[in-house]
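Appendix B. Raw example, untouched.
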Amino acid sequence: MDLGIAGRRALVCAASKGLGRGCAQALASAGCAVTVVARTEETLRATAQAIEAASGQPVQWVACDITTAEGRAAALAACPQPDILVNNAGGPPPGNFRDWDRDAWIRALDANMLTPIELIKATVDPMIERRFGRIVNITSGAVKAPIDILGLSNGARSGLTGFVAGVAREVARHNVTINNLLPGPFDTDRQRATALGVAKASGKTVDEVLAARRNANPSGRFGGIDEFGAMCAFLCSTHAGFVVGQNILLDGGAYPGTF
C-alpha cells in the first residue's frame, strides 16, 4: 500500500532502538525524510545509517535529551516544521510508589507527559497552516490496564492521554490527527528492564520471567518492532485522516476487556 507520505518530514523521538526505531524504519521505508533523536550518539548514528541503507532515504540524526528545552530546540532546529511527529521517551523505572519522592514524579511527568505536550505545542500550528499533520504518541498498554509496579508510567502517560483527547478533536478539521499507540509486551530493552525488576522481587531469573510473559500472552510471543512501526506508519498516512484521538492497543490480545 502506498501510504501517500513520500517526501513528508518526520521527527521520531527516542529512535535509536526499540519501538522508536521501528517507527523510524517504517516511515523511511514509506519515503519520508526522517530525523531521529536519542541521547546516545554512537547508537543513534549507527541506527540512522542502518535505516538509510535499508530504505534508500536520507536520515538525519540529533543526539540530545528530548526531555530538556535545549534538546527539543536542537531537534526542531534539525527538523523544523515536521509533517509527522512521533513522541516517545523511555519509561520511568518500576518500583513501589512508597519509595518515589517528588523528584521521581517530576522526572516521569517531564519525560512522558510534558515533553510530548511541548513538542505538540511547537509543531501543531504549522501543521494546521499546511493542512496536513500526523502526531503519534507512544504511551503504554498500562494506560488501559495499569501495572502496579509501573505507577510512575501509569500516572504520567494517563495524563498525556487525557490531554490528547481534547486537543485531537480541536485540530482534526484541519487534517491534523493526534493518536496514541499503546504497546503491550514487545521484544525491547524496556521489556527486559521491567522483567529484571520482577525477577529481583520474586526470586526468579530474568529468563524465567520473560518466558512466563511470552507464554501468558494469547499470541504466545512478544511483538516485534517492525509490527509496531507498520502501525505507526499507517496512522501517519493519508489513509488515516479519520482516525482521531484514539488509543490503539498492540498487545497480542493481552488486554482481556471487550472495550
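End of appendix B.
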